[in-house]
């Protein structure tokens, strides 16, 4: 019997769930970085349903994320976030979901923020039975602790290749920083798979 493919149109509720999951991962990874480097000046500050996170110097977890689903941040909160990033000499980078509150974009623009890039999040329904299709000779499985270093090398190498389509790629991080961020993600509970 063929598996019926259902289209996935993301509504606001699903966008909020995805943002919340990402925000929780960023917060946990950032706290893992703070544990690893207590002198980094790291922080995780709640703001309007999202967070402002500084994990470590040049970390991919240094950002404001999850805004747009629990109100619009007020100027006082944004002032505090901007001071926190300035105290660690890091720029404020905000990621906004396109289904979040549309007032946040103009609010940030009025404060001098500018659009630098877009990021698409793809998904698929999980409510239908799926048939796993893998090329012959390929096994996908959980990655064990004995192959952690190999897994890290593959993930970091893959992260070093820019997406050259559309707007310029601006997320370039030093290799050591990516290694540390991946270790922080693992400490935060990220599951590893390998093929």
Summarize the helices and strands and which ones pair or pack.
Elements: H1 12-36, E1 43-47, E2 50-54, E3 63-67, H2 75-87, E4 94-96, H3 104-110, E5 141-142, H4 148-159, H5 175-187, E6 193-194
Question: How would you describe the overall organization of this protein?
Answer:
It contains five helices and six strands; from the N terminus they run αβββαβαβααβ. The protein is globular. The strands form two sheets. A four-stranded mixed sheet has the order 1-2-3-4, sandwiched between helices. A two-stranded antiparallel ribbon has the order 5-6. The chain has 195 residues and is an alpha+beta fold. Strand 1 (43-47) and strand 2 (50-54) form a beta hairpin. 36% of the residues lie in helices and 11% in strands. Helix 1 (12-36) crosses helix 5 and helix 4 packs across helix 5 (175-187). It has helices at residues 12-36, 75-87, 104-110, 148-159, 175-187, and strands at residues 43-47, 50-54, 63-67, 94-96, 141-142, 193-194.
The 3D shape can be described as: globular
Supply Rg: 19 Å
Structural class: alpha+beta
**Average pLDDT taken over every residue:** 86
List keywords for this structure.
195 residues, alpha+beta, four-stranded mixed sheet, 5 helices, 36% helix, 11% strand, globular
Give a quick rundown of the structure.
The protein has 195 residues and is α+β, with helices and mostly antiparallel strands.
């Amino acid at each position: 019997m063929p598996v019926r493919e259902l289209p996935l149109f993301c509504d606001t509720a699903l966008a909020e769930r995805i943002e919340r999951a990402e925000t929780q991962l960023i917060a946990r990874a950032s706290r893992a970085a703070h544990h690893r480097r207590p002198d980094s000046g790291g922080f995780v500050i709640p703001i309007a349903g999202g967070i402002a996170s500084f994990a470590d110097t040049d970390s991919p977890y240094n950002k404001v994320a999850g805004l747009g689903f629990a109100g619009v941040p007020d100027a006082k909160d944004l002032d505090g976030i901007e001071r926190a990033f300035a105290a660690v000499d890091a720029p404020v980078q905000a990621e906004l979901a396109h289904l979040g509150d549309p007032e946040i974009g103009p609010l940030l623009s009025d404060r001098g923020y500018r659009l630098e890039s877009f990021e698409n999040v793809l998904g698929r329904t999980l409510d239908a039975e799926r048939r796993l299709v893998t090329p012959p000779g390929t096994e996908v499985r959980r990655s064990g602790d004995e192959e952690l270093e190999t897994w890290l090398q593959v993930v970091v190498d893959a992260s070093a290749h820019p997406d050259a389509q559309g707007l310029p790629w601006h997320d370039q991080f030093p290799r050591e920083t990516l290694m540390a961020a991946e270790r922080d993600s693992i400490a935060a509970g990220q599951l590893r798979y390998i093929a």
